[in-house]
């Protein structure tokens, strides 16, 4: 198996468990104020589980949600100690999100792409920079499944 093939394999449960257990601050890119939207529900779940969750949505920037000021973009999070970026954007938008995360979030350890979200190019870029990458998974499903 080549290194590239190994990188395409899904993360083992132990790795996902370690990521979720060590993460403290999560930027939710594509957060929606609509309580019926998955991004809203997952962010609220993560907040209830003790994570600091910072919503990112340019159309809602400056308003309050989850005890945080909603940010317009990842550049507005410089210095916030973000461990993970949780991406609720179409797969085509992931490269620009990852590029912004790499440029502005020096403490970032994980790029998490939600269910249905994958982008091999962006995943490779993040991995090449030393980050963990989770694709096509949801932390609100993984946390209870893994007993966290």
Task: Annotate the secondary structure layout.
Layout: H1 3-8, H2 13-22, E1 25-29, H3 38-48, E2 52-56, E3 64-65, E4 68-69, E5 84-87, H4 94-104, E6 110-113, H5 120-128, E7 132-134, H6 139-145
Parallel strand pairs: 1-2, 1-5, 5-6, 6-7
Antiparallel strand pairs: 3-4
Average pLDDT across residues? 93
CATH class: Alpha Beta
Report the CATH superfamily: NAD(P)-binding Rossmann-like Domain
CATH third-level topology: Rossmann fold
Tally of discrete structural domains: 1
**Strands of the largest sheet, in order across it?**
2-1-5-6-7
Q: What is the CATH architecture term?
A: 3-Layer(aba) Sandwich
Radius of gyration: 14 Å
Q: What class do helices, strands and sheet pairing give?
A: alpha/beta
* Number of DSSP-assigned strands: 7
Helical run tally = 6
- SSE string, helix = H, strand = E? HHEHEEEEHEHEH
Distance, first to last CA: 32 Å
Helix content: 25-40%
Protein name: CoA-binding domain-containing protein
InterPro entries: CoA-bd (IPR003781), NAD(P)-bd_dom_sf (IPR036291)
Domain CoA-binding: 19-117
Pfam family, one: CoA_binding_2
Using brief descriptors, characterize the structure shown.
148 residues; alpha/beta; five-stranded parallel beta sheet; two-stranded antiparallel ribbon; 6 helices
């Amino acid at each position: 198996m080549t290194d590239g093939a190994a990188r395409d394999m899904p993360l083992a449960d132990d790795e996902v468990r370690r990521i979720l257990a060590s993460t403290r601050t999560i930027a939710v890119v594509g957060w929606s104020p609509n309580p019926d939207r998955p991004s809203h529900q997952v962010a609220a779940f993560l907040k209830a589980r003790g994570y600091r969750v910072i919503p990112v949505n340019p159309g809602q920037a400056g308003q309050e949600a989850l005890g945080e000021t909603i940010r317009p973009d990842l550049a507005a999070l410089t210095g916030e100690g973000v461990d993970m970026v949780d991406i609720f954007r179409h797969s085509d938008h992931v490269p620009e999100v990852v590029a912004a995360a790499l440029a502005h979030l020096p403490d970032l350890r994980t790029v998490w792409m939600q269910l249905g979200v994958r982008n091999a190019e962006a995943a490779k870029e993040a991995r090449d920079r030393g980050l963990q990458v989770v694709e096509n998974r949801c932390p609100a499903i993984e946390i209870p499944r893994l007993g966290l």
